[in-house]
Hints:
Elements: E1 2-7, E2 12-14, E3 20-26, E4 33-38, E5 47-53, E6 56-65, H1 68-81, E7 88-93, E8 99-112, E9 119-128, E10 133-135, E11 139-144, E12 146-148, E13 165-167, E14 172-177, E15 186-191, E16 195-196, E17 199-202, E18 208-210, E19 214-215, E20 220-224, E21 231-236, E22 239-242, E23 259-266, E24 274-280, E25 283-284
Antiparallel strand pairs: 1-2, 1-7, 3-6, 4-5, 6-9, 7-8, 8-9, 8-10, 10-25, 11-24, 12-13, 14-23, 15-20, 15-24, 16-19, 17-18, 17-23, 20-21, 21-22
Amino acid sequence: MGFVYRNKNNEEINLTQRNIKIINIEGISSLTNEINTTTGVNQSGETYVSNRVEPRDIDILLRLKTTEDEFRTLKSKLIKVFNPALEGELILKSINGDKKISVRVKVSPDFKNTSYKTNKEVDISLVALDPYWKDINETKTEIAVWKGSFSFPLFINVENGTMMGYREPSLIVNTNNIGDVKTGMRIEFKALGTVVNPKLVNVETQDFIKINKTLEKDEIIEVTTDFSNKRVIFSKNGITENAFNYWDLYSTFLQLEIGDNLFRYDAEDGLDNLEVSIYHTSRYLGV
């Protein structure tokens, strides 16, 4: 198991390299849950109202095993990478799958003297305002897509022809959230031709996302439903713009519950011209 820290400028440092050893790292597994309650006159105990998972504090103690010359270089790199002005991410590399968590630097590298000339200890404090670990890469689920059905070498049947591709027959897809908590997603509606008012529906709850716009060929609407990053973006030919004005007022920023989630796609016209893809990143309580 190893850890890498990377800041927003893509400057990174491996915290388990030859001359760095993690002596202690706290806060990567446990969370603090703030529970809100009420109590009435003559009530025994309290009544649950709500709960809130608090930001995650991560404290790291490193030991640097270096020569004096190496120490100066490594010290400079630690200070530069753990820049408090830049958002960053702590990345866990493990045989069970890599994970990452977005963090801010609370206390930049604090270098301690030890009794050994070449062994220096360093304290670093991070805070994850979003307290959940995430998969490194998004998971993609395709609903309405065209599938290629030929490969090379290609032999064409003279009498019956050769199928070059086919459209997925199902209007419903299961998106599996393997994480520990529900999570937002990114939905992409892509038009292969004219599509009127594309829609994505949660089969179980009947909550939906609907875009009140006629899309022409190669136009894309992308909806992001993350709690702190809700967006509706229109794009064509690499040019993007805010598209919240096309958001249907009865729509919901759908979330993925833990486990299976069934979705159905729809449109008022041009359904066969619509491709829909769902992207999500599962979230975990600890590592």
